[in-house]
Amino acid sequence: MTDATETETLQRPSQSSESNGATRERNERSILSAAERVFAQYGYRGASVQAIAEAAGLPKSNVLYYMGNKRGLYVRLLERMMARWNALLDDISVEDDPADVLEAFIRSKMQLSRQHPEGSRLFAAEILGGAPFLQGYLRGELRQWVQTRARIFEQWAERGLMDPVDPVWLIFLIWSATQHYADFEAQVLGITGKDEISDDDVERITRFLTQVILKGCGVKSR
Amino acid sequence: MTDATETETLQRPSQSSESNGATRERNERSILSAAERVFAQYGYRGASVQAIAEAAGLPKSNVLYYMGNKRGLYVRLLERMMARWNALLDDISVEDDPADVLEAFIRSKMQLSRQHPEGSRLFAAEILGGAPFLQGYLRGELRQWVQTRARIFEQWAERGLMDPVDPVWLIFLIWSATQHYADFEAQVLGITGKDEISDDDVERITRFLTQVILKGCGVKSR
DNA sequence: ATACATCCTGACCACTTGGTCAACAGGTGG
DNA sequence: CCACCTGTTGACCAAGTGGTCAGGATGTAT
Protein backbone atom coordinates (compact mmCIF):
# COMPACT_ATOMS: atom_id res chain seq x y z
CA MET A 1 0.00 0.00 0.00
CA THR A 2 0.98 3.58 -0.58
CA ASP A 3 3.42 2.35 -3.24
CA ALA A 4 3.69 4.51 -6.31
CA THR A 5 4.59 3.49 -9.83
CA GLU A 6 7.77 1.51 -10.22
CA THR A 7 9.40 4.33 -12.11
CA GLU A 8 9.23 6.68 -9.16
CA THR A 9 12.53 8.41 -8.67
CA LEU A 10 13.65 8.18 -5.09
CA GLN A 11 16.78 10.08 -5.94
CA ARG A 12 15.88 13.69 -5.39
CA PRO A 13 19.05 15.83 -5.25
CA SER A 14 19.97 15.74 -8.92
CA GLN A 15 18.07 18.92 -9.84
CA SER A 16 19.63 18.93 -13.30
CA SER A 17 21.59 22.17 -13.04
CA GLU A 18 24.21 23.19 -10.43
CA SER A 19 27.01 20.77 -11.12
CA ASN A 20 29.79 22.71 -9.43
CA GLY A 21 30.68 22.29 -5.79
CA ALA A 22 27.45 23.98 -4.83
CA THR A 23 25.88 20.84 -3.46
CA ARG A 24 28.71 20.30 -1.05
CA GLU A 25 28.66 23.89 0.09
CA ARG A 26 24.93 23.96 0.66
CA ASN A 27 24.91 20.70 2.58
CA GLU A 28 27.92 21.59 4.67
CA ARG A 29 26.33 24.86 5.61
CA SER A 30 23.11 23.29 6.75
CA ILE A 31 24.99 20.59 8.65
CA LEU A 32 27.22 23.11 10.41
CA SER A 33 24.27 25.24 11.31
CA ALA A 34 22.29 22.31 12.67
CA ALA A 35 25.30 20.94 14.53
CA GLU A 36 25.94 24.28 16.17
CA ARG A 37 22.41 24.31 17.54
CA VAL A 38 22.52 20.74 18.77
CA PHE A 39 25.99 20.89 20.32
CA ALA A 40 25.13 24.18 22.00
CA GLN A 41 22.01 22.70 23.52
CA TYR A 42 23.30 19.31 24.64
CA GLY A 43 27.08 19.65 24.82
CA TYR A 44 29.58 17.50 23.00
CA ARG A 45 28.74 14.21 24.65
CA GLY A 46 25.04 14.84 24.85
CA ALA A 47 24.65 15.68 21.18
CA SER A 48 24.09 12.74 18.85
CA VAL A 49 24.99 12.60 15.18
CA GLN A 50 21.49 11.33 14.61
CA ALA A 51 19.99 14.45 16.18
CA ILE A 52 22.24 16.68 14.10
CA ALA A 53 21.27 14.83 10.95
CA GLU A 54 17.58 15.23 11.68
CA ALA A 55 18.02 18.92 12.41
CA ALA A 56 19.78 19.27 9.07
CA GLY A 57 17.17 17.20 7.26
CA LEU A 58 19.66 14.61 6.07
CA PRO A 59 20.39 10.95 6.78
CA LYS A 60 23.06 10.29 9.39
CA SER A 61 25.34 8.67 6.81
CA ASN A 62 25.31 11.84 4.79
CA VAL A 63 26.42 13.94 7.73
CA LEU A 64 29.32 11.57 8.33
CA TYR A 65 30.13 11.55 4.63
CA TYR A 66 30.71 15.30 4.72
CA MET A 67 32.15 15.72 8.19
CA GLY A 68 34.11 12.52 8.72
CA ASN A 69 33.21 12.06 12.35
CA LYS A 70 31.59 13.73 15.33
CA ARG A 71 34.82 14.96 16.85
CA GLY A 72 35.96 16.60 13.60
CA LEU A 73 32.63 18.32 13.17
CA TYR A 74 32.79 19.67 16.69
CA VAL A 75 36.34 20.95 16.30
CA ARG A 76 35.43 22.60 13.05
CA LEU A 77 32.59 24.46 14.74
CA LEU A 78 34.84 25.61 17.54
CA GLU A 79 37.39 26.87 15.04
CA ARG A 80 34.72 28.73 13.12
CA MET A 81 33.64 30.43 16.32
CA MET A 82 37.20 31.30 17.26
CA ALA A 83 37.68 32.81 13.82
CA ARG A 84 34.64 35.05 14.30
CA TRP A 85 36.03 35.99 17.67
CA ASN A 86 39.47 36.80 16.34
CA ALA A 87 37.95 38.89 13.58
CA LEU A 88 36.88 41.55 16.05
CA LEU A 89 40.05 41.56 18.12
CA ASP A 90 41.69 44.41 16.30
CA ASP A 91 44.74 46.05 17.79
CA ILE A 92 44.57 49.05 20.03
CA SER A 93 47.20 51.50 21.14
CA VAL A 94 47.90 53.59 24.22
CA GLU A 95 47.18 56.66 22.12
CA ASP A 96 43.58 55.63 21.50
CA ASP A 97 40.76 57.10 23.52
CA PRO A 98 39.89 54.73 26.42
CA ALA A 99 36.20 55.55 26.29
CA ASP A 100 36.03 54.86 22.56
CA VAL A 101 37.96 51.63 22.85
CA LEU A 102 35.97 50.25 25.75
CA GLU A 103 32.67 51.15 24.19
CA ALA A 104 33.69 49.56 20.90
CA PHE A 105 34.85 46.51 22.81
CA ILE A 106 31.54 46.12 24.59
CA ARG A 107 29.57 46.82 21.41
CA SER A 108 31.39 44.34 19.21
CA LYS A 109 31.35 41.65 21.85
CA MET A 110 27.64 42.19 22.32
CA GLN A 111 27.04 41.97 18.60
CA LEU A 112 28.99 38.76 18.32
CA SER A 113 26.84 37.13 20.98
CA ARG A 114 23.79 38.54 19.29
CA GLN A 115 24.62 37.42 15.76
CA HIS A 116 25.84 33.97 16.75
CA PRO A 117 23.98 32.94 19.85
CA GLU A 118 24.37 29.25 19.11
CA GLY A 119 28.08 29.64 18.58
CA SER A 120 28.29 31.60 21.79
CA ARG A 121 26.50 28.86 23.67
CA LEU A 122 28.63 26.21 22.02
CA PHE A 123 31.70 28.02 23.28
CA ALA A 124 30.18 28.37 26.74
CA ALA A 125 29.35 24.66 26.91
CA GLU A 126 32.90 23.81 25.92
CA ILE A 127 34.34 25.98 28.69
CA LEU A 128 31.82 24.70 31.22
CA GLY A 129 32.97 21.16 30.53
CA GLY A 130 36.55 22.15 31.31
CA ALA A 131 37.53 23.29 27.81
CA PRO A 132 38.96 19.89 26.75
CA PHE A 133 39.35 21.04 23.16
CA LEU A 134 40.23 24.68 23.78
CA GLN A 135 42.99 24.48 26.38
CA GLY A 136 45.61 25.33 23.81
CA TYR A 137 43.75 28.33 22.48
CA LEU A 138 43.08 29.71 25.97
CA ARG A 139 46.64 29.29 27.19
CA GLY A 140 48.08 30.58 23.92
CA GLU A 141 46.54 33.11 21.58
CA LEU A 142 43.80 34.33 23.87
CA ARG A 143 46.08 34.72 26.85
CA GLN A 144 48.49 36.74 24.75
CA TRP A 145 45.68 38.95 23.56
CA VAL A 146 44.43 39.58 27.08
CA GLN A 147 47.89 40.47 28.34
CA THR A 148 48.64 43.04 25.66
CA ARG A 149 45.27 44.66 26.26
CA ALA A 150 45.81 44.59 29.98
CA ARG A 151 49.09 46.42 29.62
CA ILE A 152 47.40 49.21 27.70
CA PHE A 153 44.68 49.53 30.31
CA GLU A 154 47.41 49.87 32.92
CA GLN A 155 49.12 52.58 30.97
CA TRP A 156 45.86 54.45 30.69
CA ALA A 157 45.52 54.21 34.43
CA GLU A 158 49.04 55.53 34.91
CA ARG A 159 48.19 58.48 32.74
CA GLY A 160 45.13 59.15 34.85
CA LEU A 161 42.69 58.32 32.06
CA MET A 162 40.94 55.71 34.16
CA ASP A 163 40.99 54.19 37.67
CA PRO A 164 43.76 51.72 38.43
CA VAL A 165 41.50 48.67 38.31
CA ASP A 166 42.88 45.22 37.59
CA PRO A 167 42.64 45.08 33.79
CA VAL A 168 42.24 41.32 33.58
CA TRP A 169 39.23 41.29 35.88
CA LEU A 170 37.85 44.15 33.84
CA ILE A 171 38.11 42.14 30.64
CA PHE A 172 36.41 39.20 32.33
CA LEU A 173 33.68 41.50 33.57
CA ILE A 174 32.98 42.69 30.04
CA TRP A 175 33.04 39.19 28.65
CA SER A 176 30.71 37.81 31.26
CA ALA A 177 28.22 40.65 31.03
CA THR A 178 28.02 40.58 27.25
CA GLN A 179 27.97 36.82 26.94
CA HIS A 180 25.23 36.47 29.50
CA TYR A 181 22.43 37.52 27.21
CA ALA A 182 23.22 34.79 24.72
CA ASP A 183 24.23 32.00 27.07
CA PHE A 184 21.52 32.57 29.67
CA GLU A 185 18.90 33.67 27.19
CA ALA A 186 16.45 31.19 28.67
CA GLN A 187 16.84 32.79 32.07
CA VAL A 188 16.56 36.33 30.75
CA LEU A 189 13.42 35.50 28.84
CA GLY A 190 11.90 33.55 31.71
CA ILE A 191 12.41 36.34 34.19
CA THR A 192 11.52 39.29 32.00
CA GLY A 193 8.54 37.46 30.56
CA LYS A 194 9.49 38.45 27.03
CA ASP A 195 9.54 35.81 24.31
CA GLU A 196 12.53 37.24 22.53
CA ILE A 197 15.25 39.79 23.04
CA SER A 198 14.65 42.57 20.54
CA ASP A 199 17.18 44.77 18.77
CA ASP A 200 15.98 47.60 20.96
CA ASP A 201 16.72 45.58 24.08
CA VAL A 202 20.20 44.86 22.81
CA GLU A 203 20.83 48.51 22.18
CA ARG A 204 19.56 49.44 25.63
CA ILE A 205 21.66 46.75 27.30
CA THR A 206 24.72 47.87 25.38
CA ARG A 207 24.25 51.44 26.49
CA PHE A 208 23.59 50.35 30.06
CA LEU A 209 26.75 48.25 30.23
CA THR A 210 28.85 50.92 28.56
CA GLN A 211 27.63 53.56 30.96
CA VAL A 212 28.07 51.51 34.12
CA ILE A 213 31.45 50.07 33.22
CA LEU A 214 32.97 53.31 31.95
CA LYS A 215 31.70 55.27 34.88
CA GLY A 216 32.60 52.49 37.25
CA CYS A 217 36.19 52.48 36.05
CA GLY A 218 36.42 56.26 36.05
CA VAL A 219 37.17 56.37 32.34
CA LYS A 220 37.71 59.88 31.04
CA SER A 221 37.05 60.72 27.44
CA ARG A 222 39.56 63.01 25.76
CA MET B 1 42.85 -18.16 37.48
CA THR B 2 43.07 -15.30 39.96
CA ASP B 3 40.37 -17.02 41.98
CA ALA B 4 40.73 -16.73 45.72
CA THR B 5 39.57 -19.19 48.30
CA GLU B 6 35.91 -20.06 48.20
CA THR B 7 35.34 -18.48 51.56
CA GLU B 8 36.33 -15.01 50.39
CA THR B 9 33.81 -12.44 51.50
CA LEU B 10 32.75 -10.25 48.62
CA GLN B 11 30.29 -8.47 50.85
CA ARG B 12 32.15 -5.53 52.31
CA PRO B 13 29.68 -2.94 53.64
CA SER B 14 28.50 -4.76 56.75
CA GLN B 15 31.03 -3.16 59.11
CA SER B 16 29.26 -4.61 62.14
CA SER B 17 28.18 -1.33 63.76
CA GLU B 18 26.13 1.57 62.29
CA SER B 19 22.76 -0.01 61.86
CA ASN B 20 20.79 3.22 61.72
CA GLY B 21 20.15 5.11 58.48
CA ALA B 22 23.78 6.12 58.33
CA THR B 23 24.59 3.91 55.35
CA ARG B 24 21.90 5.49 53.27
CA GLU B 25 22.95 8.97 54.20
CA ARG B 26 26.60 8.37 53.45
CA ASN B 27 25.90 6.74 50.11
CA GLU B 28 23.39 9.36 49.05
CA ARG B 29 25.83 12.11 49.86
CA SER B 30 28.61 10.59 47.80
CA ILE B 31 26.23 9.90 44.92
CA LEU B 32 24.86 13.44 44.94
CA SER B 33 28.33 14.90 45.07
CA ALA B 34 29.57 12.72 42.22
CA ALA B 35 26.46 13.36 40.16
CA GLU B 36 26.80 17.10 40.57
CA ARG B 37 30.32 16.96 39.16
CA VAL B 38 29.41 14.72 36.25
CA PHE B 39 26.20 16.54 35.30
CA ALA B 40 28.00 19.88 35.51
CA GLN B 41 30.73 18.68 33.20
CA TYR B 42 28.69 16.85 30.59
CA GLY B 43 25.18 18.19 30.88
CA TYR B 44 22.06 16.12 31.51
CA ARG B 45 22.16 14.10 28.31
CA GLY B 46 25.91 13.78 28.20
CA ALA B 47 26.22 12.42 31.71
CA SER B 48 25.82 8.68 32.11
CA VAL B 49 24.67 6.86 35.21
CA GLN B 50 27.68 4.62 34.76
CA ALA B 51 30.05 7.59 34.96
CA ILE B 52 28.29 8.90 38.06
CA ALA B 53 28.51 5.48 39.67
CA GLU B 54 32.24 5.26 38.99
CA ALA B 55 32.81 8.74 40.35
CA ALA B 56 30.95 7.72 43.49
CA GLY B 57 32.80 4.42 43.71
CA LEU B 58 29.66 2.33 43.53
CA PRO B 59 28.07 -0.06 41.06
CA LYS B 60 25.52 1.44 38.74
CA SER B 61 22.73 -0.67 40.21
CA ASN B 62 23.41 0.81 43.59
CA VAL B 63 23.08 4.35 42.31
CA LEU B 64 19.73 3.50 40.79
CA TYR B 65 18.67 1.74 43.98
CA TYR B 66 19.09 5.00 45.90
CA MET B 67 18.06 7.51 43.28
CA GLY B 68 15.39 5.71 41.30
CA ASN B 69 16.40 7.02 37.92
CA LYS B 70 18.60 9.52 36.15
CA ARG B 71 15.94 12.16 35.79
CA GLY B 72 15.02 12.05 39.47
CA LEU B 73 18.64 12.38 40.48
CA TYR B 74 19.06 15.38 38.23
CA VAL B 75 15.95 17.12 39.49
CA ARG B 76 17.00 16.50 43.06
CA LEU B 77 20.34 18.17 42.38
CA LEU B 78 18.67 21.17 40.79
CA GLU B 79 16.34 21.52 43.75
CA ARG B 80 19.24 21.36 46.14
CA MET B 81 20.96 24.14 44.24
CA MET B 82 17.80 26.26 44.16
CA ALA B 83 17.48 25.80 47.91
CA ARG B 84 21.01 27.12 48.43
CA TRP B 85 20.16 30.00 46.17
CA ASN B 86 16.97 30.85 47.97
CA ALA B 87 18.77 30.71 51.30
CA LEU B 88 20.63 33.91 50.52
CA LEU B 89 17.74 35.78 49.00
CA ASP B 90 16.77 37.59 52.16
CA ASP B 91 14.38 40.47 51.95
CA ILE B 92 15.43 44.06 51.61
CA SER B 93 13.59 47.31 52.14
CA VAL B 94 13.67 50.79 50.65
CA GLU B 95 14.99 52.02 53.96
CA ASP B 96 18.16 49.95 53.68
CA ASP B 97 21.39 51.48 52.53
CA PRO B 98 21.83 50.85 48.78
CA ALA B 99 25.60 50.50 49.04
CA ASP B 100 25.34 47.95 51.84
CA VAL B 101 22.67 45.96 50.08
CA LEU B 102 24.43 45.86 46.74
CA GLU B 103 27.74 44.91 48.29
CA ALA B 104 26.12 42.17 50.35
CA PHE B 105 24.36 40.98 47.22
CA ILE B 106 27.59 40.74 45.25
CA ARG B 107 29.44 39.15 48.16
CA SER B 108 26.89 36.46 48.90
CA LYS B 109 26.42 35.62 45.25
CA MET B 110 30.18 35.35 44.84
CA GLN B 111 30.42 33.08 47.84
CA LEU B 112 27.70 30.83 46.56
CA SER B 113 29.57 30.32 43.28
CA ARG B 114 32.75 29.81 45.24
CA GLN B 115 31.38 27.28 47.69
CA HIS B 116 29.40 25.30 45.15
CA PRO B 117 31.18 25.59 41.82
CA GLU B 118 29.80 22.29 40.56
CA GLY B 119 26.29 23.27 41.49
CA SER B 120 26.80 26.60 39.81
CA ARG B 121 27.97 24.91 36.63
CA LEU B 122 25.12 22.43 36.83
CA PHE B 123 22.72 25.34 36.93
CA ALA B 124 24.53 27.04 34.06
CA ALA B 125 24.40 23.91 31.93
CA GLU B 126 20.68 23.60 32.58
CA ILE B 127 20.06 27.19 31.46
CA LEU B 128 22.36 26.82 28.45
CA GLY B 129 20.30 23.88 27.27
CA GLY B 130 17.14 26.00 27.41
CA ALA B 131 16.22 25.35 31.04
CA PRO B 132 13.92 22.40 30.25
CA PHE B 133 13.56 21.55 33.94
CA LEU B 134 13.68 25.05 35.39
CA GLN B 135 11.19 26.96 33.27
CA GLY B 136 8.70 26.97 36.08
CA TYR B 137 11.13 28.25 38.67
CA LEU B 138 12.38 31.02 36.36
CA ARG B 139 8.95 32.21 35.37
CA GLY B 140 7.65 31.92 38.91
CA GLU B 141 9.60 32.37 42.12
CA LEU B 142 12.71 33.86 40.62
CA ARG B 143 10.83 36.31 38.47
CA GLN B 144 8.87 37.46 41.47
CA TRP B 145 12.05 37.93 43.44
CA VAL B 146 13.65 39.98 40.67
CA GLN B 147 10.66 42.24 40.32
CA THR B 148 10.38 43.11 43.98
CA ARG B 149 14.08 43.90 44.09
CA ALA B 150 13.83 45.92 40.91
CA ARG B 151 11.10 48.06 42.41
CA ILE B 152 13.29 48.90 45.37
CA PHE B 153 16.18 49.85 43.12
CA GLU B 154 13.83 52.16 41.26
CA GLN B 155 12.72 53.79 44.45
CA TRP B 156 16.32 54.36 45.43
CA ALA B 157 16.86 56.00 42.09
CA GLU B 158 13.83 58.23 42.61
CA ARG B 159 15.24 59.32 45.95
CA GLY B 160 18.53 60.16 44.26
CA LEU B 161 20.44 57.44 46.04
CA MET B 162 21.62 55.92 42.76
CA ASP B 163 21.47 56.54 39.01
CA PRO B 164 18.21 55.62 37.27
CA VAL B 165 19.59 52.50 35.62
CA ASP B 166 17.34 49.65 34.55
CA PRO B 167 17.26 47.52 37.69
CA VAL B 168 16.67 44.26 35.89
CA TRP B 169 19.73 44.66 33.69
CA LEU B 170 21.65 45.56 36.82
CA ILE B 171 20.66 42.33 38.51
CA PHE B 172 21.67 40.38 35.42
CA LEU B 173 24.99 42.20 35.36
CA ILE B 174 25.72 41.17 38.92
CA TRP B 175 24.65 37.59 38.29
CA SER B 176 26.74 37.23 35.19
CA ALA B 177 29.85 38.80 36.68
CA THR B 178 29.76 36.73 39.85
CA GLN B 179 28.81 33.49 38.16
CA HIS B 180 31.55 33.84 35.59
CA TYR B 181 34.36 32.78 37.89
CA ALA B 182 32.74 29.45 38.63
CA ASP B 183 31.22 28.67 35.27
CA PHE B 184 34.15 29.82 33.14
CA GLU B 185 36.78 28.75 35.63
CA ALA B 186 38.64 26.86 32.90
CA GLN B 187 38.89 30.05 30.88
CA VAL B 188 39.98 32.18 33.81
CA LEU B 189 42.67 29.70 34.78
CA GLY B 190 43.87 29.22 31.21
CA ILE B 191 44.24 32.93 30.60
CA THR B 192 45.68 33.97 33.94
CA GLY B 193 48.00 30.97 33.98
CA LYS B 194 47.05 30.13 37.55
CA ASP B 195 46.16 26.59 38.48
CA GLU B 196 43.51 27.59 40.96
CA ILE B 197 41.57 30.64 42.05
CA SER B 198 42.68 31.45 45.59
CA ASP B 199 40.67 32.96 48.42
CA ASP B 200 42.69 36.12 47.94
CA ASP B 201 41.69 36.26 44.29
CA VAL B 202 38.05 35.89 45.25
CA GLU B 203 38.34 38.72 47.74
CA ARG B 204 40.05 40.96 45.18
CA ILE B 205 37.47 40.16 42.52
CA THR B 206 34.66 40.83 44.97
CA ARG B 207 36.10 44.22 45.85
CA PHE B 208 36.71 45.03 42.20
CA LEU B 209 33.16 44.19 41.22
CA THR B 210 31.68 46.05 44.17
CA GLN B 211 33.71 49.12 43.40
CA VAL B 212 32.98 49.20 39.69
CA ILE B 213 29.29 48.43 39.96
CA LEU B 214 28.56 50.79 42.84
CA LYS B 215 30.50 53.60 41.26
CA GLY B 216 29.08 52.78 37.83
CA CYS B 217 25.53 53.09 39.13
CA GLY B 218 26.29 56.21 41.11
CA VAL B 219 25.31 54.59 44.39
CA LYS B 220 25.56 56.89 47.37
CA SER B 221 26.15 55.52 50.82
CA ARG B 222 24.24 57.14 53.63
C1' DA C 1 30.13 4.55 -24.64
C1' DT C 2 33.65 4.57 -21.13
C1' DA C 3 35.81 6.22 -17.18
C1' DC C 4 36.05 8.90 -13.22
C1' DA C 5 34.68 11.68 -9.31
C1' DT C 6 31.23 13.22 -6.35
C1' DC C 7 27.25 12.22 -3.85
C1' DC C 8 23.74 9.39 -1.40
C1' DT C 9 22.07 5.99 1.87
C1' DG C 10 20.24 1.64 3.95
C1' DA C 11 22.18 -2.13 6.25
C1' DC C 12 25.08 -3.37 9.54
C1' DC C 13 28.55 -3.55 13.59
C1' DA C 14 30.36 -3.40 18.29
C1' DC C 15 29.50 -0.85 22.16
C1' DT C 16 27.02 2.05 25.55
C1' DT C 17 22.75 3.77 27.26
C1' DG C 18 19.03 3.84 31.18
C1' DG C 19 16.63 0.72 33.64
C1' DT C 20 14.81 -3.93 35.68
C1' DC C 21 15.16 -7.92 38.35
C1' DA C 22 16.18 -11.81 40.93
C1' DA C 23 19.27 -13.50 44.19
C1' DC C 24 21.50 -12.71 48.13
C1' DA C 25 23.81 -10.59 52.60
C1' DG C 26 23.25 -8.56 57.20
C1' DG C 27 20.79 -7.03 61.08
C1' DT C 28 16.67 -6.68 64.11
C1' DG C 29 12.66 -8.12 66.50
C1' DG C 30 9.68 -11.75 67.56
C1' DC D 1 14.16 -20.44 64.43
C1' DC D 2 11.43 -17.15 61.55
C1' DA D 3 9.95 -12.91 59.09
C1' DC D 4 11.16 -8.55 57.62
C1' DC D 5 13.70 -4.63 56.21
C1' DT D 6 17.72 -2.36 54.17
C1' DG D 7 21.35 -2.77 51.23
C1' DT D 8 24.12 -4.91 47.27
C1' DT D 9 24.99 -6.28 42.70
C1' DG D 10 25.76 -9.14 38.43
C1' DA D 11 23.05 -10.50 34.62
C1' DC D 12 20.15 -8.98 31.44
C1' DC D 13 17.25 -6.11 28.06
C1' DA D 14 15.67 -2.98 24.36
C1' DA D 15 17.09 1.09 22.45
C1' DG D 16 20.47 4.25 21.01
C1' DT D 17 25.50 5.34 20.11
C1' DG D 18 29.40 6.54 16.56
C1' DG D 19 31.10 4.75 12.62
C1' DT D 20 31.81 1.61 8.30
C1' DC D 21 30.75 -0.02 3.93
C1' DA D 22 29.02 -1.68 -0.26
C1' DG D 23 26.16 -0.46 -3.89
C1' DG D 24 24.13 2.60 -6.43
C1' DA D 25 22.85 7.31 -8.62
C1' DT D 26 24.38 11.39 -11.15
C1' DG D 27 27.21 14.47 -13.85
C1' DT D 28 31.54 15.63 -16.57
C1' DA D 29 35.28 14.66 -19.52
C1' DT D 30 37.14 11.88 -22.91
Automatic annotation (TrEMBL), chains A, B:
Residues 48-67 bind DNA. It holds the Pfam family TetR_N. Residues 7-22 have a biased composition (Polar residues). Keywords: DNA-binding. Coiled coil: none annotated. The keyword DNA-binding applies. Residues 25-85 form the HTH tetR-type domain. One of its GO terms (biological process) is negative regulation of DNA-templated transcription. One of its GO terms (molecular function) is DNA binding. PROSITE patterns: HTH_TETR_2. Residues 1-27 are annotated as: Disordered. The keyword DNA-binding applies. It comes from the Bacteria. PANTHER family: HTH-TYPE TRANSCRIPTIONAL REPRESSOR SCO4008 (PTHR30328:SF54), TRANSCRIPTIONAL REPRESSOR (PTHR30328). This is TetR family transcriptional regulator.
